[in-house]
Amino acid sequence: MEARLSNARTVQKHEKEGTVASMKSMKGAKGTKGMKGTKGTRARAHWAILAALLAAALILPGCGQGGGEGSPAAGATQAQGAGGDAGAADSGASVAAGAGDAAGSAEGGSGDADGGTEAAGGAGDGAAAGGAAGERITLTFFDKNSGEAFSDPVALEVAERTGINLEIQQPTGNPEEKLSLLLASGELPDIVLMDRRSDIVNQYIAAGGLIALNDLIDEHGPDIKAMYGDVLKKSLYEDGKNYFLNNWYGVDPDPGRGINIRMDLLKEMGYGAQAERGDPFTQRQFVEMLAAFKAQYSGDGSAIPFTVNGEYMETVFSTFKGMYGMKRYYEQDGGQLQLDVRDPRYLEMARFVNQLYRDGLMDKEWPVNKDDIFNQKLISGQVMAYGGGYASDANSVFRDDGGQDTDRQFYMFRVVADGTDPNATTFSPRSSLGWDAIGITASNRHPVETIEFMNSLASEEGQYLLLWGVEGLHWDIVDGKHQPRPEILPGFRNDWGAFSKETGIRKWTWFVKNGFGSDGTPFDLVTKYDVDAITVHARVSMEGSGWDTAVYDDLGPLGGTPDALVEQKLNDIIDQGFSKMAFAASDADVQAEYAKMLAELDANGAASVEAIYTRNYQNRLALQGG
Question: Cα 493–496–499 angle (5° rounding)?
């Protein structure tokens, strides 16, 4: 269901970058010689054959292969993260309030009007890696997330370390349209960064636009192997080869979704100790607290025990599903995948939502709650709890009014459905395979030097350079740990975009790994290093409640195919069916509507689409040796 409905922009930012942002604001290589010559020639010949078709079709991403849950990952703000059931992404980082994807993709609208190249800086006289003495190699890099010149302090340091100058290309308008045109013409940049979950990646691979990286990584990518680990295995194409490196990969340490409840009201109702510890609440406790709130505060009819943001229904559904431990598909023994609605827990979930509605505990306007209305309700103080990511706007207002330590803030909790193991809940679905794909094209005349460049930036040292800045200028090692200089974090708090452009910190978000370095400090300085009390609490209360969607990524029919149209029809039936169940007049009506929905799905080809899910899933497991 997550891939059916519009992704929450907040969740996308939360999963991709794991930030908590306010909605108010962010060499020949052995065995690789053929990649330079023969393979490139074959690819260009292949393009010549396909060019007319590609240009005529102006290949655009299909809609049939649903994105990852949390589809940032995704660039991130909760403005979360997710990644889809995914998007990137409110990690609750106090610094990131208002930032989201600002340093990475928020600047993507800039660039030359004709989608041209912006020259890179990074001068120096040393011998270039793989180049002639005294020269440096210049590579063109199409980065859908950036339109800035490669000339800031971090960029200069990258050029100095790697011997590579970059010319950053980013088009105005739709990046995927530009990528399609480039593929059709055969005039490709040396490196491309594109949406991993889009059909454009498969189009590039199928047309020979990207070269296989396996031999290059084996020979020249020790840090890539060490940092990526089994992500490389999980990202194999159907021919068993890797054609790109993932970006924003690995498991995000911060949760993205849960049931958010005001701490002051929890304490008032006698749940203070449990709430402060971050212990899970049972479904019964949750209903009882909502009922108590309604009884005490609904005198004028304005009290809203529980609500959701109707603009981001994907987040709403995945939050409810998380209570019951449901995932994207209903997997039966033998790896048979079915639509999630066939899971018996789906009906129980629908009955629970309907019960909240019929008992007056659910905001009757929740389907039409848009961002502004939803935030106004939270800020007004009339809401006790809501489902989804962090309440950045509301909590910011509450802190302005009551101080930084006020209990009048929404904290994230795990509410566990009856009969569900708390450790089996599935809040915060995100893919460890990340949001972007970064590949070397068949037009690249320096594949060895390019993979060495990638290896440098993918390394731990490279991650700290890209995401923390230059040692001695932006950060120092203190007592064996990375420590930002005093002005760095305030600089991002005051003006994320301007400070990132000035320093280069977190401006070039490439090969980013979620997680921590060997000294225990996070790679993502701005959103993970200095986090607020809400995030600290959520890391405890929601620990272990997320799940990696990678094994289920992109199992659906290819976009634009008849099967994809069937899948869309099925999704529509499910969406309409859930709405009827949620607003049913009785529990019996809920069950009747559920039976009708299943019958309609079967009559509209559900079995054929489920067979595609199963076949693709089993092929993936076999490819990965699972």
Answer: 105
